[in-house]
Amino acid sequence: IIVVTAGTMFYICQSEKQSLLFAVAVLFAGICASYYFADSLSKQTSRLTLVAGNILLFDTMTEGVALHELIYDDKGKAVNYRIIDVNPAFEKQTGISPKIAKGKLATELYGTESAPYLALWASVAETGNPHHSEVFFGPLNRFLSIACCSPRKGWFATVFTDVTDKKKFEEQLIQSEEKFRAMVETTSDWIWEIDKNLICTYASPKIKKLLGYAPEEVVGKTPINFMLLEEAEKLGLVIKKIFNAREPFSNIELRFRHKNGRIVIIETSGAPVYDKNGTFMGYRGIDHDITERK
Length: 294
Description:
Elements: E1 2-5, E2 8-11, H1 16-36, H2 41-46, E3 64-72, E4 78-86, H3 89-94, H4 98-101, H5 106-110, H6 118-127, E5 131-137, E6 142-149, E7 155-162, H7 164-186, E8 190-195, E9 200-203, H8 207-211, H9 215-218, H10 229-245, E10 249-257, E11 263-274, E12 280-289
Antiparallel strand pairs: 1-2, 3-4, 3-7, 5-6, 6-7, 8-9, 8-12, 10-11, 11-12
């Protein structure tokens, strides 16, 4: 069989199964790549390994790949699916040996009463419309990112990666953010963030009590807008020195103008913020009202 795609000619050996597997490769590279990779079709197809005389396996892929055939009852309803073939990475992603997986019904392989996500995969196999989603795959107790496409009616291929660690990290991050938010919203101090241009990018709710402004009235503006004029001039010199050194600072006293006109004396502390690449992004800090001390 000769197949031409993206200007490149491929020779596929002998069996129908090989042809289907190659079709999966082309579909995955051409259709499902939009879900899974940023590379071009030509780059994707160039990564595929065609093994003459043997079943085509995606030996160079770190993602697990599995080819399936739907099983229908006598009324034409999809009731199961059979795992026709898998690539070597299938075992790394699932913990199941290819020798055990090949030829098994899904219910048999995964030990379930019904085939996992049967309705979803059957829809892909019968309509030809590809699908991508991140799902919790109960039988394996893992989160998987799965791209699915169909090489022909009644068949479907899944290309997947174990994203359990990523999901756990995201959950931990959410929990950390919730704890931080709870702390920020209950503290009596004003938590703030400014970018490298001195524009406020975050203001905790406590600024309302401190200066009379809602957070949305402050975000997008520079703190200098809320200071006494002479204080703003003084701060300009201090900030220039601090920003140039990019060092933490603490207990700097500043005088702000409350929304009602009264003067509020604030003690401010902060530290530089960097992104994951080490690029300076601005400062994050905390302000405390010390007016009653003065």
